[in-house]
Design a protein that fits this description.
InterPro entries: 2-thiour_desulf. This protein has five helices and eight strands. α3 crosses α4.
Length: about 170
C-alpha cells in the first residue's frame, strides 16, 4: 500500500454517530469497506474537531464573505467551524491523505452544495468551511454522490499513472 493514497473521510459516512442530531450517514459501498479493511481511511468530524458537541443544533451558512455560520437558534458557530476546518486540514496533511470524501450539503463538508441558510431544506450551490479549506490547499474533495469519480481517482493513483492531485467537480 502506498501511504499517500489514504482518504480523509467524514466520520458520519463510516457509521459514527457524530451528525448534529446524533445519527450517522453510513454509506454502503464495497469500495469504502475495502479501503477501511486496508486501513486507508482517516475518519474525521470537523464539527467535533472544532469543539461542537453531539448532538448539537443544526447550523447553516448565512454569509460566505466573510463566512458566517449560525445554528437554527441564532448562535454564531463560525469560530468552531473554522477551527474544525483548520484541524481537519492538519489531520489530512499529517496523515498524507491524497483526497477527501466528505458529507454532501454539510456547512463543513459540502463540496458542491449547501443549505441556503434559512433552515428550510433548500439547497444552493456552494461549499462548506472544511471543504473550502481542503480545496484551497490542493486536496480533491468528493462527496458520497461522487463515489464513482473518487474510485476512478484512487485507481489512477494506485496504478501509478498519476500522482498529481486534481480537483473533483
Amino acid at each position: 500500500m502506498n501511504k499517500k493514497n489514504k482518504i480523509l473521510i467524514s466520520a458520519c459516512l463510516l457509521g459514527c454517530k457524530v451528525r448534529y442530531d446524533g445519527r450517522d450517514n453510513l454509506i454502503d459501498s464495497d469500495f469504502i469497506q475495502r479501503m477501511q479493511q486496508q486501513q486507508r481511511l482517516v475518519p474525521v468530524c470537523p464539527e467535533q474537531e472544532g469543539g461542537l458537541p453531539t448532538p448539537r443544533a443544526p447550523a447553516e451558512i448565512q454569509d460566505k464573505f466573510p463566512l458566517r455560520i449560525t445554528s437554527n437558534e441564532g448562535e454564531d458557530v463560525t469560530p468552531q467551524f473554522l477551527a474544525g476546518a483548520e484541524k481537519t486540514l492538519e489531520i489530512a496533511q499529517r496523515e498524507d491523505c491524497c483526497c477527501a470524501l466528505l458529507k454532501s450539503r454539510s456547512p463543513s463538508c459540502g463540496n458542491l452544495e449547501v443549505y441556503d441558510g434559512n433552515f428550510s431544506g433548500t439547497i444552493k450551490a456552494g461549499s462548506g468551511a472544511t471543504a473550502d479549506e481542503l480545496m484551497r490547499n490542493g486536496f480533491p474533495v468528493y462527496n458520497e454522490r461522487q463515489l464513482d469519480q473518487l474510485i476512478e481517482f484512487i485507481e489512477l493513483l494506485d496504478s501509478g499513472e498519476s500522482d498529481s492531485r486534481r480537483c473533483a467537480s
